[in-house]
Specification:
This protein has 235 residues and is α/β, with parallel strands linked by helices. 40% of the residues lie in helices and 26% in strands. A hairpin with a 2-residue loop joins β1 and β2 (14-24). α3 runs parallel beside α6 (138-150).
Length: 235
């Protein structure tokens, strides 16, 4: 479904990612592991069209999206849930969700169905639909960010550090939700520092260091890899 071939991105003279090769098959849940600044978010930005690769190509369902604008990439079916949630804090929960459905705004039946699905997944959002997004707890804001992304009916959902800043119990619930979304048919690309939780639900993973993929493999292989355990899980 998604394939990155030798993708490199620079910020001025600084190389953020170097010759990155990644594949995500339809229906998979794939995780990108690595510390802060390792290149995970830049990889997401390159896929989303927010940063243009200096080298390499990005293919989605067989077509190059390297030169496509972010809005065309969203319309193609790739949606990113950004690190830090990036909600419209002074808008209501409902308004934030409807903004997520902007690309489908003329398809009223689809928007209504998507909203119903989000409320079924996150009942608290329906309960608080008239409250400002900024008034929600951290966990509820993350639910809203994911819900807003789901309003686009994505083929590929990219989640950038969804567990950051959340309490351990909420983190556990969040990963259960992500696993559920994937099992319901949405392909997921997840960027995480919480390797222990991410590898439990992922099919495969890639480990980033200094902008490059240094280890890749099935989740079970990464979970038992001594270097990965020492760096990200704890032996």
């Amino acid at each position: 479904m998604l394939k990155l071939e030798g993708v490199s991105v620079k910020y001025g003279s600084f190389s953020a990612i170097n010759s990155v090769d990644i594949e995500v098959e339809e229906g998979e849940l794939v995780v990108l592991l690595g510390s802060n600044g390792a290149g995970k978010s830049t990889t997401f930005k390159a896929i989303s069209g927010l940063e243009k690769p200096g080298e390499g190509d990005i293919l989605f369902q067989g077509d190059s999206i390297r030169k496509k604008s972010p809005d065309r990439i969203v319309k193609a079916g790739i949606v990113q849930c950004a690190e830090g949630r990036e909600l419209f804090s002074r808008m209501t929960v409902f308004e934030n969700l409807i903004m997520g459905a902007y690309v489908h705004r003329k398809k009223k039946a689809l928007v209504k169905k998507s909203l119903r699905n989000v409320y079924e997944l996150f009942p608290i959002l329906e309960e608080k639909k008239n409250q400002d997004a900024g008034s929600l707890s951290g966990g509820q804001q993350q639910m809203l960010a994911i819900g807003r992304a789901l309003m686009t009916s994505p083929k590929l959902l990219m989640l950038d550090e969804p567990s950051i800043g959340l309490a351990p119990l909420v983190v556990e619930q969040m990963f259960e939700v992500i696993e559920h979304i994937n099992k319901e048919g949405t392909t997921v690309l997840l960027a995480e520092q919480n390797a222990n939780a991410a590898l439990k639900i992922a099919d495969r993973g890639y480990v980033f260091e200094s902008g490059s993929v240094v280890v890749k493999g099935a989740s079970s292989e990464l979970f038992t890899n001594d270097a990965v355990r020492k760096a990200y899980i704890g032996a």
